[in-house]
């Protein structure tokens, strides 16, 4: 890690936050969390964060990015949104909300919190409780229909 942190206030906030969550604020964790939280609410895959880290001259392997994202998710700093077996997004907005997924652009968007999606929760099997309800609404562009 030879990078200089661009936003010292954010880096200092992230150090405090990581400590409060029980994670040692290593250079890698501080650098990656500063990238993740520098631009408001975002949805990033590990590969996207890897590219951003490279551009910011943060030298880190993709495996370390995966490990760090999983640690951040475990402590509740991020939310993981799984699209399919090969694609997972990490959401810097850890509050409960739902998503649109634009399939042909591989883009995840927040559904406005004022738009109700889940009207009634399903009854879980005996001995289980609902942790959270994540809805991903998959979208594709409408096909133009010729006028009759
Ligand atoms: Zn989101």
Secondary-structure blueprint:
Layout lengths: L7 H13 L6 H10 L6 E2 L1 H10 L6 H13 L4 E6 L2 E5 L7 E4 L4 E4 L25 E4 L9
Parallel strand pairs: 4-6
Antiparallel strand pairs: 1-3, 2-3, 4-5
The structure holds zinc ion (ZN).
Strand content: 15-25%
Task: List the helices and strands in order.
Answer: HHEHHEEEEE
Bound molecules: zinc ion
Strand order of the largest sheet: 1-3-2
Biggest beta sheet summary: 3 strands, antiparallel
Identify the quaternary structure here: single chain
Helix content: 25-40%
Distance between the termini: 63 Å
Explain what this protein looks like in three dimensions:
- This protein has a three-stranded antiparallel beta sheet. Strands 5-4-6 form a three-stranded mixed beta sheet, with no helix packed on it.
- Strand 4 (99-102) and strand 5 form a beta hairpin.
- It has helices at 8-20, 27-36, 46-55, 62-74, and strands at residues 43-44, 79-84, 87-91, 99-102, 107-110, 136-139.
- It contains four helices and six strands.
- It starts with 7 loop residues before the first helix and ends in a 9-residue tail after the last strand.
- Helix 1 (8-20) packs across helix 2 and helix 3 (46-55) packs across helix 4 (62-74).
- With 148 residues, it is α+β, with helices and mostly antiparallel strands.
- It is globular, with a radius of gyration of 18 Å.
- Bound molecules: zinc ion.
- Zinc ion binds next to loops.
